[in-house]
Specification:
Radius of gyration: 39 Å
Strand content: 15-25%
Low-confidence stretches: none
Number of strands: 10
CATH architecture of the largest domain: 2-Layer Sandwich
Helix content: 40-55%
Bound molecules: 3,4-dihydroxyphenylalanine
Number of domains: 2
Number of helices: 12
Strand order of the largest sheet: 1-5-6-10-9-8-7
Shape: elongated
Distance between the termini: 80 Å
Largest sheet: 7 strands, mixed
Length: 344
Amino acid sequence: MLERVKEIYQEIEHFDVQTKEQLEQFRLRFVAKKGVVAELFDSLKQVPQEDRRAVGQELNSLKDLAQQRFTDYKATLENSQEETASAVDLSLPVVPNQTGAIHPLSLVRQQIIHIFERIGFSVADGPEIETDWYNFGALNFADNHPARDMQDTFFVEKKSEGSAADVLLRTHTSNVQIRLMERQKPPVRAIMPGRVYRNEAISARAHCLFHQVEGLYVDRNVGFKDLKDTLYHFVKELFGKDTQIRFRPSFFPFTEPSAEIDISCLICKGKGCNVCKYTGWVEIAGSGMVDPNVLTNCGIDAEEYTGFAFGMGIERIAMLKYQIRDLRLFTENDVRFLRQFEGA
Ligand code: DAH
């Protein structure tokens, strides 16, 4: 019998009470009328008369211990509950949840992608560190052609075996056209957004790092009319139905014929202001029919297929759309500027 009393002592010592449920288990096992301690009291009758007093004393202290522990555990649990209850004051106003704003360049890129996706263009991607071949050669820039000087290139590595292998930071997204046509046979219809680099002094109007979106559609019987249709649609969707568009003859090595696309100035509505330099028009993109040499360079039969291409600067479009006068604002991370695009 004394052995059993010892066991229960041990059990009480080791019983872990952290939760209300454990407290209840403790009560049922050691304190309740049907618990083990009460059971021992019942079997006291069977203890020989001469030992009964000693065993009875042990049992009484066991019972006291169980009761004491129970009261202590209960008090601790109730206190900790009170503490947590007072730590959370549900009547306090919530801390405002400050959400970030989408960067205006991301916003404009998303809008452009969305417009073109709805008319069947997919989105393609390509490397920013590129070889001369993909950035210039395959795009029909002849070696030493002055057109290469149009874009001030950051070279990463000059190779001795000829310029095609030189490594550079791409100066435009047109490299993705080549990579796409190499791996996908017509019909090819995609836009290619991405970062580009040019060695230019940073000012309100120029930066050494900016973003472009390239567009390409190659299939049988693609004509200049398709280019015009597509870009008219795009301009009206992005800038509004009343925007006027004009195609101005131009030159790019990779397109023939080529055209620059102007839209009526969004600020003065064509009347003339300092943004449009009093012409009423602002340029937003270059475009043209893909030069047959470019198709051939990508292994596409230029007799069977034709295509159009266009390219535009995302910063320029964002500046026109949101009337931002300084390009540097895009990279300065001034939250007062960025917050203006919250919820846009
Ligand atoms: N790559 C030209 C630039 O960076 C933009 C451009 C013009 C892209 C005409 C084209 C195009 O695809 O057809 O200035």
